[in-house]
Amino acid sequence: MSIIEDYLNERGTLTYSNVGTSMMPLLRQGRDLFTVRKMGQERCRAGDVVLYKRPPDKYILHRIVEVREDGYVILGDNCVNREYGIRDSDILGVMTGYIRDGKEHSVTEQAYLDYTARILRGEKSRVARIRLKQRIRRTLKRIVGRA
Predict the structure, then answer these.
(1) Are 74 and 90 in contact (CB under 8 A)?
(2) Which domain holds residue 68?
């Protein structure tokens, strides 16, 4: 077990800062905090943001976009590639809230619920926009690099 798993097992919740941009615009790297509750026996739902462990020791905070009988399909809000084969046993905790600019927000607030619905409903168009931006950046990089 790791420090994160030990902490969750001892205290039941963990508040931590995210690293990376995979959950933008919901969570901003180095500025926002998130709180997760230790996973119990219940199954997660589409829209839940979960902290899970990817072997060997990588911890990921992403959103469930599809619930399957044998596991979950997960995708970061700012990512293009779905992650398959995530099992209940991989999930350590479920996000219950986040802190932005010193203000606490709950996943039960209407603004958050609306955001989650938009993320789930607009996944294909959001992924297409992100991919288009990536292509434009690569193209500009090649053009500027030749000058």
Answers:
(1) no
(2) 3-122
pLDDT of residue 133: 87
* Residue 74 burial (CB count, 10 A): 26
Question: Sorting pLDDT into bands at 50, 70 and 90, what band is 129?
Answer: confident
From residue 124, give the alpha-carbon distance in Å to each of 24, 77, 116, 147.
16, 12, 14, 35
Position 78 pLDDT exceeds 70: yes
Return d(Cα 81, Cα 127) in angstroms, integer: 8
Q: Which CATH number goes with the domain that contains 23? A: 2.10.109.10
Other beta carbons within 10 angstroms of residue 2's beta carbon come to 11
Domain assignment present for 66: yes
pLDDT surpassing 80 at residue 146: no
Flag whether 139 is in a domain.
no
27 within some domain: yes
Number of domains within the chain: 1
According to DSSP, the residues that pair with 135 across neighbouring strands are none
